[in-house]
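Format notes (please read before filing issues)

Several people have asked whether sequences and structure tokens are stored in separate files. They are not. Every record keeps both together, in the order shown below: the sequence lines, then the token lines. Line labels are part of the format and must not be stripped during preprocessing.
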Amino acid sequence: MLARFPVSIAWPMNDSFKRGAREGFRLFLPMSVGLIPWALVTGVAMRSAGFSPVEAMGMNLIVFAGTAQIGTLPLIAAGAPLWLIVLTALVLNLRFVIFSAALAPAFEGQSWRRRLASSYLLVDGVFAVCSERILRSHDPHWRWGCFIAPSLWAWVLWQFFVLAGVLGAGSIPRDWSLEFMATIALMVMLVPMTQLRPMLVAALAGGLAAVALRGLPLKLGLIVGIVVGIAAGFAAEHLGVQRRRA
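Then the structure lines:
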């Protein structure tokens, strides 16, 4: 699959690249199983919101962010203003700004096209299990393989099972409790990230704020919770840097 990508996106298939690709795929493979119920739920939810199969898969290809897709569907179904839908999607995806900033040193010197493709393919699970090793390596070939192989695997897996959810929305038994399975899958992705203190602070602050403000209209409590979590995470990181310098 990688060999078919343009040269500007896929790195030459040298031994270093292959070793990195194998390592990234090995690290991410167990966690990638958690994408399956989440993708199925997303596909079913889009059909339940009134999307046609073409519309649902079009959104899936353009957005490629399950949390943003699920989070904006109630607003779309309720006829919320476009600015609120866009703002919600942006806020729900703000964590990727943090992820991208953390990974930026590993992409120094890469082409604009490759960095743009990487920003589209970046997913929580790959960041959670691969970022530390990617940043530790000084070999750009190995780093690129370790990132792109699991990221492409996540993309293919997500598209396939969202399509399965879209096409099978009317036939998937409701007693399968896919929503619960998807929640568990997200928790599995969250746990490795909370090993870092700023991430743990962000998760706790954001979760508590979202629960406390759940009564706000148009799901605004969720947006406020995300903003609070990000602010708390940045504050914790800043304090940590100051303590290390002291």
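For reference, the curators noted about this record: Confidence is low (pLDDT under 50) at residues 1-8. The chain is about 75% helix and 0% strand.
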